[in-house]
User: Fold this.
Amino acid sequence: MKTKKKLCCIAMALTFISSMVVAPSVRVSAMENRNGVVTEVNGNINTSGLQADITFPDYLNYVDDTLIVNNMYTFKGYKGQGKLYITCSDGLQNVRVFINGNEIDVSEACRNNGKTYEIDFSDISVNDRNTIQVTNFVPETGKVNIKIPYPEVISGSAEAVGMDQSTLDLIDTLINNDVKYGFTSAQLAVIKDGVMVKNSAYGKTNSYNQDG
Assistant:
């Protein structure tokens, strides 16, 4: 019963953390035209870590080419990080690529059909849903392959994602006191918007005599 009460206290404290988080507002105007950094890829891409590997246009295989969703795709991302890979098919002369309403200059990829280029769009990425649109193919028979890796969890400070460090310190005090009075051990990881702000272990690795 005592252990259950301690676990309930920890759960309530974690709920308190969530209530203290203030999510930063992010606005990306469709009128802005901030170009991502486009560089040629040398070597192979790790295809096992992709959330999407799609070819435009009409990646949904719809027969009605007037549907705008054929040229748009929504994917998971985090603010401050983001990259994808683009490969233009042979014969493609021009195409327009937009990420979150911002046009990316992919002219170099169009001039070098068949080569893969990395686009770093970390300056215009947002938390959660990001959108890519690929349109205006010249000629219309051209195709573009897009590969999008999963976002990564990185280490950072609580303040960087709008959290109060003192709240995390309070959780440390609570759990350490529980360990002091008999709670064996605990481990806590706190992640917000792709940033791990806390990864802590408390107590003993083994709470029993290994010799039996």
User: Anything to note?
Assistant: The chain has a mean pLDDT of 80. The CA atoms of residues 184 and 207 lie 6 Å apart. The longest helix spans residues 2-20. The radius of gyration is 24 Å.
